[in-house]
Amino acid sequence: MSNCNIRVELDREDRVYRVGDHVKCLVHVDVDQAVSCDGLLARVSWYTHGRGNGDSGGNREHILFKGEWQAGSHVYPCEFDLDSGPLSYHGHNINIDWQVEARADIPWAIDPKDSAEFILERGQDCPQLYAEKVQLDRNTLSNMKSFWLFLTIPLIFSGVGAYKVASNWRINDIFDMLFWIALVAVVLTVSFFVVRNSLAQRKLGKVTVSVDPKALNPGELTEVSVSFSPRVMIALNGIMAQLVAKEVAISGSGTNRKTHTHTFHREEFPLIGKIRLEQGRQARYQTKVMVPKNAHHTFIADDNRIQWQVELTIDVDDWPDWRSSHPLLVKI
Amino acid sequence: MTSQLNRLAYAALNLRFNPFGELSREQRVLLAVVDIGDLPQRLCQPRVAIQFLADHGYGKSTHLLALHAQFSQYTYTQVHTNVKPHFTAQEIQFVDSIENLSRLQRARLYRLSPRIAFTTHRDLSQELTTAGYSVYTRTLNQQSVDRVQAIFNRRIAHARRFHDEPVPTVTAATVSRLIERFDGNIRAMEYELYEMFQDLKAVADV
């Protein structure tokens, strides 16, 4: 059995590239005796690692050789354009890296392979956005799922409770009682979150929020404005916008499926402090929210997401708060 | 470590990734530290069922994957809750989380499968015997310090960047403490170690 070793060497010693650069590499192949190769493939791709299941993409590949290798060393140069993201990212739950991978298809043997990872940074001019439309659509979908989840859980528990009462059910022991106390607490808590905004709007009136633009570059500003006409005279403790960035990674599948969330940026932008508002008088407040210059762009893959959002809170004195969340698309 | 590479992930630890993050199925097979003993031979006998029985996080799937690696020509099916998988008749079935199938679905599966290996939280010996199988049960609830330490350090070795430079190691004392704290649940121990490795700034014993 012949021995075949592969090594990938990148042209930059620090392995740092920018969008718009080319990554040049040499694929070294050492064989100790003549061997047939059905294809020496070089591929560039991004991949994630960390808490979540691995995602990958951006594959581009070249076939560098096909045929018979004689014993000795062989070197194959190749080059890939780095014209789009995602950019490299090293966070808590999620890491995004790029690599050049080389693999030789040797008949009747385990395919030898090697890879060299590299860093991809923001370039001077990044012409391509990273899947802009998909990202906004997915965020919207995610919000819809949360809404239906919150609505369904209390309905199920209420249904079970109603059935038990209707069937003359009796509390038999302390464990039954503790279970039902916990159940009622859960139902009340979830129900509160479902109806919280409705309760707040009984005093605030219909609340309209605008975030514009929703897609922006790092270092740019978005304007957040909120308007409403109070139905009664009310006191507010303040209105606050928060810029929040989260890593959301999903690991496992089926019953082992688990979502890991890590908030890595939270910044407050007040719209107004304590204030009393007259009934029926139109109230409109606004602020500018800046995405940090070094912010990593929005990233959405199957099991790994880096998402930015503006969270708005109207803190009503002695009454449930009004809250809403608005996804942002941070461009490359 | 080559100082020019210090911007790569986990470069200060001489690792390519956090060893206690989520692994792919292929990596789990590659890194499995399991003793399947004579189970491959047993699985070659007629009308035999092998069940790996334990709670979450004790290595049932890893054992089943290691066994499946010996019979990779047969399908490995992961059963999720509320998803009805389609089984076709084949000589050996490998089924992960069989308890997610209803009793009726399992009965149908038994009719299609002369031999079967699966993971479960519940002991299904009785219904398997009724279905005509000889049943071998491997209960996974004991974790020795040596074995768990081998599992963890194998994962670290797999994540190693340069072979001639040191990497962090998980000590027997830490493993012992983790086994006691998490009652032998390897997945829970790995979650804890993930955080410990995220906090590491340089190569050290953990």
Write up this protein.
The complex is a heterodimer of chains A (332) and B (206). The radius of gyration of chain A is 28 Å and the shape is elongated. Chain A is built from 2 helices and 19 strands. Chain A has helices at residues 132-166, 174-204; strands at residues 4-10, 16-18, 22-31, 35-50, 56-69, 72-81, 89-90, 94-104, 113-121, 208-212, 215-216, 221-228, 234-251, 258-272, 275-277, 283-290, 299-300, 304-316, 322-330. In chain A, strands 11, 13, 14, 15, 17, 18 and 19 form a 7-stranded mixed beta sheet that branches. In chain A, strands 2, 4, 5, 7, 8 and 9 form a 6-stranded mixed beta sheet that branches. In chain A, strands 1-3-6 form a 3-stranded antiparallel beta sheet, with no helix packed on it. Chain A has 332 residues and is α+β, with helices and mostly antiparallel strands. In chain A, helix 1 packs across helix 2 (174-204). Helix content of chain A is 20%, strand content 50%. Chain A starts with a strand and ends with a strand. With 206 residues, chain B is of the alpha/beta class. Chain B has a 5-stranded parallel beta sheet. The mean pLDDT of chain B is 90.
